[in-house]
Every structure is written in C-alpha cells, then in structure tokens.
C-alpha cells in the first residue's frame, strides 16, 4: 500500500496509508455546464458517463508524491484538482494533479484514470480550518516546456467544484468515509489554445485568508519505445 506524508500548518506531519483512491469526474457545481462539456467531449469520441457527477475507483498505488511522471506516449496531461485525505484525526485537504492518458480516454474514462498517477502535495490543511472560506481558495495550473516560461492553463477557484462535504457524504453512503481513503475532486476548465501535452505540470492551491499555498510540481518523461 502507498504511504503519504503531509506537513500541516502547525509544523506537524501526518502519515496516511492509502487504502482507497477515487477520482471524481464531471464534478462542476453548475451541472448544466457539465452536460455541455460532455457533449463537446462526445464529438471527440470520449464516451459520456452514465451519471453525473461520476466517481471512478483507482488503484491505490497511483496516489503519489512524485517529482516525475513517466508516460507511454506524448498525449497525456495533468488536471488541477484538490484532494481530500481521510485520516484517523479528521480530513485533510491538499492540492493534486490527476495525470491522464488522453488517447486511452476515448475508450474509457475509468481506464484512462488508471493509466497515470494522482500526484498529491506534500503539505495539507485540516478541512475544518478552511471549510468556511473554501470558495475563496484559488486553484491554478501551469504547463512548461524546456527553455520557456511556464504558461497558465487553468485558473479558477474551489467554488467551481462540488465541495469536499458533498463527497464526504457520498463516501459515507458507500462505507468509504474512513481513514485511508483519498478522493480527487475533478478539475476545472482549461484555457483555450494552451498545449496541455507539456513537459511539466505545476498546480497551486492558494488561500487568500491565511496567505498559505500548497503546490504540486512534476516533470513528464516519456519512456523508451517498446520492442515487440
């Protein structure tokens, strides 16, 4: 099982053994906009979900705190998200980047989610400490290429997504609101015209009330061509 460690604002560290990893999808609060997005994806050959919002179980070892993601080809990309981490001392909130195989996505979203890691931050906040101003917390992502400045590709706030409490209720209904469960939120819209198939991804979740931020950053490296 994967073990993750998080530094909390008070300087303490919380270690969690991940038993269940879940990826939310189509998780915008404005579900009419979500349905329009599903229609756009259908034109690209991506199958729509049977229900929205969706939730996809993912192999627990894919929860990582890595500085590099190794991929099989050039059509994979990240997604700026938040992650909730259920511990024996309450729920933590951190930044995350769901690295997804876009070629595989047209055959099945759940398959694509299991083809790459969910990279989580090394810092976290207690959900109870930020719950009252969650919608003010910003969520941004940048992509990078060698020799170039990073380019902003996502710029939104947690107010665009269904809340952690919504998903905690869903987890409770399924017997998954228990220590070791990690849920990734689903993502926000990408800025048109920015190439998502980049050499690096960086996600930042910033709290304007406390002045604190949590970052996830990693390089993307393509593995060698197979033989056979």
UniProtKB/TrEMBL annotation:
<dbReference type="InterPro" id="IPR036663">
    <property type="entry name" value="Fumarylacetoacetase_C_sf"/>
</dbReference>
<dbReference type="InterPro" id="IPR021269">
    <property type="entry name" value="DUF2848"/>
</dbReference>
<protein>
    <recommendedName>
        <fullName>DUF2848 domain-containing protein</fullName>
    </recommendedName>
</protein>
<dbReference type="Pfam" id="PF11010">
    <property type="entry name" value="DUF2848"/>
</dbReference>
